[in-house]
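Students often ask what a holo structure prediction actually looks like on paper. The answer is less mysterious than it sounds. You provide the chain, you provide the ligand, and the output is a string of C-alpha cells encoding the 3D arrangement of the protein together with glutathione.
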Amino acid sequence: MIFHGYFRSSAAWRCRIAFNLKELRPETVFVHLRRDGGEHKKAAYRALNPQGLVPALQLDDGTILTQSLAIIEWLEETHPTPPLLPSDPARRALVRGFAQAIACEIHPLQNPRIQGYLRNELGQPEEAVAAWLRRWLGEGLAACEALVERSGGGGRFCFDDTPGLADICLVPQVGSAERLGVDTSAMPRLRAIAAACAELPAFSDAAPAKQPDFEP
Ligand SMILES: N[C@@H](CCC(=O)N[C@@H](CS)C(=O)NCC(=O)O)C(=O)O
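The corresponding C-alpha cells follow.
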C-alpha cells in the first residue's frame, strides 16, 4: 500500500496517526503542496485523486482511496485492533459527529486553495486571511470543546480512555490552532486531550516536524 501525503496536511496527519495506532507502515510518497505551483494540481497526482487533495491511499490491488475519514474507516474495518471507534452505536455516532465537525466544517475553510482564493482572487491582505483562518478555527474548536464536555468525556481522551477517531482529528486541528495563534485558553479539555495524545508515540511520530518532507 502506498500513502500519498504532505507533512503539513492535517488530513494526511490524521491518517498517519491512524496508521501508527494500527502499527502499519505504508510506503509513503510526498506530494509537495507549494513547490512548482503545487504537485497536487498536476495531472500525475490528479490521476490518483481527481479532487487534487492529499491524502490518497493506493491499495495493493490498485484501488485508490481518497478522503482521510474514508481511509481511516477502511483501516478500522480491515485492521480492527486497536479499535478507533467505541462499540456502542450511539457513542460511535458521537465520535463520528465530532470527527466530521473537524473534517467537514472546520478544516475545509483553512485549505491552501481557500487561502489562495481570498488572497489572489478576492485581493484580501494577509491580515484578513489570518483573521479568516483564526475565526473559523476558533469558533469550530469552541464547539468541539462543548461536544466533548457534553458527552461526559471526563477521560484522558475525547470520548474514551483510549485514543480514537475523535482524537485523531483533534490533534492536527489543535496543531493548526497553535501555528495560527488561535486563543485556546477557553478550551481546557481539548488542550488536555492534545497534551495526553502528544505523550503517545503514535501521535508524536505523526507530527509534521517528524516527517521526512518537513520544511520549517
Ligand atoms: N476532506 C479531505 C480534505 C483533504 C484536503 O483538503 N487536503 C488539503 C491538505 S490538508 C489539500 O490537499 N489542499 C490542497 C489545496 O488546498 O490546494 C480529507 O479529509 O482528506
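DSSP finds nine helices and four strands in the chain.
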